[in-house]
């Protein structure tokens, strides 16, 4: 498997439900980031969690990081139809290689109204 | 709008054509990137420019030629492409520091090679 691998590949839920996406990675990281992409558009940064942090919140988003298991999860609470998009985790390598992110293949989230 | 503008949004070209993709960032960032997004594959980092200097070339074929005339503009020159080069090409920028490590992406150029 590759660095920054998301699970599940696709997730279909009803509006109001919570959506949880997971990401696993292999090598040491400086930080882990989550991005969102609407169909055929560019990626939009959602949240960044550093290797010394365990949990972070931003609005309806909650990200956790477990460096011992090399995994992260993104929780979207009270989902809306507008949350329908692809979600990617991206890892920044340890050391000083800023910005050279490695992306996973993404989770396609569909929220039904 | 993220502050990163890419043109054109769509491009169809034959294998013998030469074309260029353009990216402009209005964020005052010092690093710019080209990424390739193919169907069912993770985003692939192609090139990195830091303060106009190329700092990374991720084993990209020579038919892709980047150019960064200043820290706000980035080009990707294309020539004699193959059908497998059809993909969404994304430009991104960032301010390289420990406090600002997130990428700002443009909307991409959807390239089709016939």
Structure write-up:
The complex is a heterodimer of chains A (113) and B (114). Chain A is 0% helix and 57% strand. Chain A is mainly beta and 113 residues long. The model of chain A has no long low-confidence stretch (mean pLDDT 90). Chain B has strands at 4-7, 10-13, 18-25, 31-37, 44-50, 53-57, 64-70, 73-79, 87-94, 104-105, 109-113. In chain B, the strands form two sheets. In chain B, strands 2, 4, 5, 6, 9, 10 and 11 form a seven-stranded mixed sheet that branches. In chain B, strands 1-3-8-7 form a four-stranded antiparallel sheet, with no helix packed on it. In chain B, 36% of the residues are buried. Classes of the chains: A mainly beta (113), B mainly beta (114). Chains A and B meet through strand 4, strand 5 and strand 10 of A and strand 9 and strand 10 of B.
Helix content of chain B: under 10%
Strand element count of chain A: 11
- Uncertain stretches of chain A: none
Distance between the termini of chain B: 31 Å
What is the string of SSEs of chain B from the N terminus onward?
A: EEEEEEEEEEE
Order of helices and strands of chain A: EEEEEEEEEEE
Radius of gyration of chain B: 13 Å
Integer average pLDDT of chain A: 90
Instruction: Choose one word for the global shape of chain B.
Output: globular
> Greatest contact pair?
A-B, 24 and 28 residues
The coarse silhouette of chain A is: globular
**What value does the Rg of chain A take, in angstroms?**
13 Å
Structural class of chain B: mainly beta
Report low-confidence residues of chain B grouped into runs of 5 or more. none
Q: Main β-sheet of chain A: number of strands, strand sense, barrel status?
A: 6 strands, mixed
Strand tally of chain B: 11
Summarize the main sheet of chain B: 7 strands, mixed
Question: What features would you highlight for this structure?
Answer:
heterodimer, A: mainly beta, six-stranded mixed beta sheet, five-stranded antiparallel beta sheet, 0% helix, 57% strand, B: 114 residues, mainly beta
